[in-house]
Amino acid sequence: MIRFxxxxxxxxxxxxxxxxxxxxxxxxxxxxxxxxxxxGAPEGSSPEGTPDQTHVPFERLVNADxxxxxxxxxxxxxxxxRYSRLDQIDRSNVGGLRVLWAYxxxxxxxxxxxxxxxxxxxxxxxxxxVSALDARSGRQLWTWSPEMGPDVLNIGFPxxxxxxxxxxxxVFVGTLDAHLVALDARSGAVRWDVEVGDNAIGFxxxxxxxxxKDKVIVGVSGAEAGVRGxxxxxxxxxxxxxxxxxxxxxxxxxGSETWGGNSWETGGGSTWLTGSYDPELDLLYWPIGNPAPDxxxxxxxxxxxxxxxxxxxxxxxxxxxxxFQFTPHDxxxxxxxxxxxxxxxxxxxxxRKLVVxxxxxxxxxxxxxxxxxxLHGREYSKQTWAEGLDENGRPxxxxxxxPTEEGVLVWPSxxxxxxxxxxxxxxxxxxxxxxxxxxxAVYFKADVEYVxxxxxxxxxxxxxxxxxxxxxxxxxxxLTGELVWEFPLLSPPWSGAMATAGDLVFGGDNExxxxxxxxxxxxxxWNFQSGGAVRSGPMSYEVDGRQRIVSSAGxxxxxxxxD
Amino acid sequence: MRQGANGNARFGLAILGAAVALAAxxxxxxxxxxxxxxxxxxxxRLYQAHCxxxxxxxxxxxxxxxxxxxxxxxxxxxxxxxxxxRDGIPGTGMPGLRATILPDEEAALVAAHVISxxxxxxxxxxxxxxxxxxxxxxxxxxxxxxxVEGRGxxxxxxLTGIGMRRGPEYLRASLVDPxxxxxxxxxxxxSGFAQYLPLRAVTRDGTVYEGMRANEDAFTVQLVTATGxxxxxxxxxxxxxxxxxxHSLMPATASLSGEDIxxxxxxxxxxxx
Lengths: 563, 273
Hints:
By secondary structure, chain A is mostly beta strands. In chain B, helix 7 (168-176) packs across helix 8 (258-270).
């Protein structure tokens, strides 16, 4: 169903906040209301002749590396490097970094990565609010919240949002009640609002969408409610569904033989983290989540394709070009929803296009991203469930590691060695920086029956805690996964990392530290005790010719600089 | 006599019955009777799974207080038990169990079992609390490290109300072999981390600090020395940081007789009861 802001025949009304004082904004709002889809000013300029700060055509996204003062996609570029080419802040001066401004949000967990476009930061606030901030001062320009009742379901994850996507003059956000909403970038007015999935049976959107060409691509949460997952692409102008690719094949479709009985109908395979895109190959890479029910695999005999897979898709049609499954017949909730990092390198003497990922199951993978061929894999964090990977990358599972009614202790815990929080890849060091959770858990299996809108998990875990668990920022050789250095953390982290051209790696920990490490050695160079747990998507931008570092902690977004 | 002893009684009606019983009579113990045998048995199993680790499978206590006692001061009735199950008790080891872990229906059954435990009154404590107080104040020299009701020195855990937080067997183990197991945070951001962990830190210039960990993160550590000084250290300045698991600064009470220890436990168990 598509709901236009101007017509709004039924359902949730848009509620843009009335914080618009400038004539230019009012004028554009009138335009948007009069003609939904109207893009306002012509490309590159505003009606008043000043440079258009809010126009980001697809070409700018493809060439994001050419404008390091901005941060145009969730992971900084389509290759998902989460690497800033700004180098003003470096090893020699990072010790002088201080808070320049902070933006306080309402209660809730902040997992947003701000998008920076020419002096404006677009951030999301929990659960599904979007705010535009003056990147110089932190003052709010506009804010928009969906109207959601308190009964919105979030089964299997907290009420979070990881950020927006931009394309042309529109900002796109997924909401906890599983809508995708297009907002005018200057005013926050709603251009269109579509329902991606039915929240009453467990669908939600927490990820930052990805805009590719003329489409907005989103994935869904909901495997813990037994949904059948899919990836959707919507026309950015109109909100019409362009394609939908299910992650669980129906009977007769390829891969359906990996599901017993009717288990495919409630098979999970959610798609809740932003994918990557290769403009040259014109391939979209999207990671897929766990099968449902999570911990009781008896009801779904088989490998359960395409759960815990990486899919390569045609972005125009959604057609699956190849897949690679990390954890066949997963019984530990090890979604493959980790950031997929694209890099080009020499592999055994030949230039090769690669996709690398540190998976939740504690193995690091190197794949050929044209074909999906498994090239290399190795353990990067403590694990006790597999002897290793075979020549095709399939895990050699150790018997007796599936959950039982009595409980079985296995590393890693269900939250995995990696999770949603981003790794970073620095082309300067060739290192892959992975915040790593070193934690085991006792896994339990239980009987389970599918009830729509209820948890469908079939067990659970008791994770080791306190001194029995720990964390680290691990610097891995991006081509081999071998450990080069690690910086220990007191507890398993929930924050992403960002490397910069200043040869720094920024990260955060549960104890409240936002910190910078030497990208080559791991030596700690700066830290700020924020007073709140860090669950951040760190990023960097530039305003007034000065580099800024952004990380959230607790309920606050902090912006740091040297001046 | 069981009200509504029909095993097929709907849960909602059972709770309604409990509410009516509560309203009609201040004797809250009657309310548990609104649950059928089948429900109480299920409540017992859930209790064992969720609560037994700290409160004891039989409700005789452990790291948490015994619940098989005549009166639970914080939880006089079924509704109050449910509130504690949901919200936990801030400042103690009692965590709140959310509905995703323990649905409403199950929380009500667990609470019913807890209420039923009071009839068992299994927790028996040998010893004389009044004599225990004397031991505490004299030969035990406990005030030199512990505060009770405002008196004493705050090096070790405060013992005001300790009888409401710990079971007698846990208290005994803490007295006889304090190094065997350090208490851990049971809730909050530091859940699972050891409390009162002895540390030995040596700075790069050779200064040695010993004490108990107050807090720690990747960059800093804070400790309290045996004389009560608070020391803040940056890990970058340390040559060595030893975490002495398996040790406690609490001296073993080997010099006390078995009777003294019994009396001491009786005194501690009476605190806050």
